[in-house]
Amino acid sequence: MLLIDGYNLLFALFGEGDAPRDVERERKKLVSLLASFGQSKITVVFDGNRYSQSQLIGDSSTVGKLKILFTRSGESADERIVAMAGEARDRKGITVITTDRQIRNAVEKLGVKTIRSETFAGQLHPASSKEGGERPARRKEDGISDAEVDGWMKVFGIDDETKAKNEERKA
Fold first, then answer.
1. CA–CA separation, 30 vs 7, rounded Å?
2. 43, 125, 147, 170: which has the fewest C-beta neighbours closer than 10 Å?
3. Exposed e or buried b for every residue in 93-115, given b needs 16+ CB within 10 A?
4. 26-58, pLDDT tens digit by residue?
5. Could you give the C-alpha distances from 133 to 8, 33, 109, in angstroms and in order?
């Protein structure tokens, strides 16, 4: 069984950022991709309070072999995923799809396998191609920001002079 962190996978497929987006449309597209994926049982969990219409809070539905859950008010998808993994009889038969380190650590301690959302997103592409559907846009991997580079340079004791020498060597 696959247990999926819904918005985490959605952002791995369609990108993150500050640009205006139609999350409902992206969520429907993700559900369609998952429903056509060749896995026997899939549960996708979305935060009910995040990007959802109020009537979706606490809602659940099924599309074929895909179960779609929206958490209740005051409950996060992270909490629900960890709880579901902990309550499962066959933990070795579960794989949690998320990039969230806290979820991954918690469920791995329970003996549950994990796959990063970006890795799984790549596996969804063939499923959409088989059906003749449009491939979802992948998030552009920009690397780390200049501020993050500067922070790591300080951690490793690299000063601006050393940085300049390294950049000259690259040119």
1. 9
2. 170
3. ebbbbbbbeebbebbeeeebebb
4. 888 898 889 888 767 999 999 877 665 555 555
5. 22, 9, 37
